[in-house]
Specification:
64% of the residues lie in helices and 3% in strands. By secondary structure, it is mostly helical. The chain folds into two domains: 2-226, Cytochrome p450; 256-327, no CATH class. A two-stranded antiparallel ribbon has the order 1-4. Strands 2-3 form a two-stranded antiparallel ribbon. Helix 5 (97-115) packs antiparallel against helix 8 and helix 10 (195-226) crosses helix 12 (257-270). It is globular and about 60 Å long. It binds protoporphyrin IX containing FE. Keywords: Iron, Metal-binding, Monooxygenase, Oxidoreductase. It comes from Panagrolaimus superbus. One of its GO terms (cellular component) is cytoplasm. GO terms for molecular function: heme binding; iron ion binding; oxidoreductase activity, acting on paired donors, with incorporation or reduction of molecular oxygen, reduced flavin or flavoprotein as one donor, and incorporation of one atom of oxygen.
């Protein structure tokens, strides 16, 4: 789409690329995230740090006698901190909340500009674009704000990195910049580890990782509030398996069957990315007599899978609510 080239400063990033640049950077991203311990160690420590701050903050608000507490705001800040630690090596929760709110404002304006219905219409129609320059201007402005924000972070971060020391990187930007140095030292001039690619990956990981996780958890909290009987069962399982004097860690996962089911059911029921992402067919295919040529953009509607079983088996018996499929 035109919009993705505009906002990623060309065909950059992870989400809206394909071919060699996608393959190279997806592999690099998975490699870096695994090194940080995706699903274990460093990642778990970062998550638990934020969980601890989040619990303290909510407890403090209760202690201060607040009648209404926005759990969603606290979750949002915690997830933002974890993603930022992953990208730039530091979180926001302790003393950088203002920075988080600034980034959230830029992202909100960005999403609003690219989601604006007239802009969506213009996306496929260059003539309309020319006729309505203000729409184009809004997207450029929102994109520039985000790019400036990330580039400022990156410049400050680059100054702190010791490129000579043989130390494993602990955040994505550091790993990326070190890889660039390495390639340049080996004489590769036309590599893809450019500033534009780094900006676009930061944007992609921020949007893909922050909003999705934060909103899924916010839905989970709401479902538990609306379903006290399910909440009681989760509580009973946690009392039995964990007790109240320690954090839950990944090692506990296999013993928490009911909690796992509640999380799976949350992901099914909140149906967070109902149209998935667009994909390009790399070859002609035929499905049930329909021929779809190569290079067609396709959207696979994950909601048809998430709800189908429930519709078929249980819908008429009144099980279309949260908990209908698993609990
Ligand atoms: C509850 C949380 C999440 C949900 C519901 C979610 C959902 C999705 C979906 C539906 C896709 C499209 C898959 C496809 O095209 O077939 C996707 C892709 C992607 N997600 Fe997530 N995601 C979540 C968390 C994350 C996190 C935490 C990160 C990274 C920190 C992330 C990074 C990405 C990236 C980079 C892609 C593009 C992959 C590619 O095209 O190679 N996501 N996500």
């Amino acid at each position: 789409m035109f919009v993705t080239d505009l906002t990623r400063k060309g065909r950059n990033g992870l989400i809206f690329t394909d071919g060699p640049i996608w393959r190279e950077h997806r592999r690099f991203a998975l490699h870096v995230l695994r090194d940080f311990g995706m699903g274990k160690n460093l990642m778990q420590e970062r998550v638990l740090d934020e969980v601890s701050i989040l619990i303290d903050e909510i407890k403090m608000q209760i202690f201060e006698g607040k009648k209404e507490i926005s759990v969603q705001d606290s979750i949002d800040l915690a997830i933002g901190s974890i993603i930022n630690a992953l990208l730039f090596g530091y979180g926001f929760s302790k003393n950088k909340k203002e920075e988080f709110y600034e980034l959230k404002t830029h992202l909100k304006n960005f999403m609003r500009a690219v989601g604006y219905p007239l802009f969506r219409l213009c996306d496929r129609n260059p003539i309309m674009f020319k006729a309505l320059p203000f729409i184009y201007g809004n997207v450029i402005q929102a994109t520039d704000k985000l790019e400036n924000f990330f580039m400022k972070e990156l410049e400050a971060h680059e100054k702190e990195i010791n490129f000579d020391a043989d130390i494993e990187p602990t955040d994505y930007a550091e790993a990326f910049l070190k890889k660039r140095k390495e390639l340049e030292a080996e004489g590769f001039k036309d590599h893809t580890f450019t500033n534009k690619q780094l900006y676009a990956v930061c944007l992609d990981l921020w949007i893909a990782g922050q909003e999705t996780t934060s909103n899924t958890l916010a839905w989970l909290v709401m479902y538990l509030m609306l379903n006290p009987e399910i909440q009681k069962k989760v509580h009973a399982e946690l009392d039995q398996v964990i007790g109240s004097d320690r954090f839950i860690t990944l090692e506990d996962k296999i013993h928490l069957n009911y909690l796992n089911a509640v999380i799976a059911e949350t992901q099914r029921f909140c149906n967070l990315v109902p149209m998935n992402l667009n994909q390009r067919l790399v070859k002609d295919v035929e499905i049930k007599g329909y021929r779809i040529p190569a290079n067609t953009t396709i959207l696979h509607l994950i909601s048809t899978v998430l709800f189908k079983a429930v519709y078929r088996k249980k819908f008429r018996r009144g099980h279309s609510n949260f908990g209908g499929a698993y609990l």
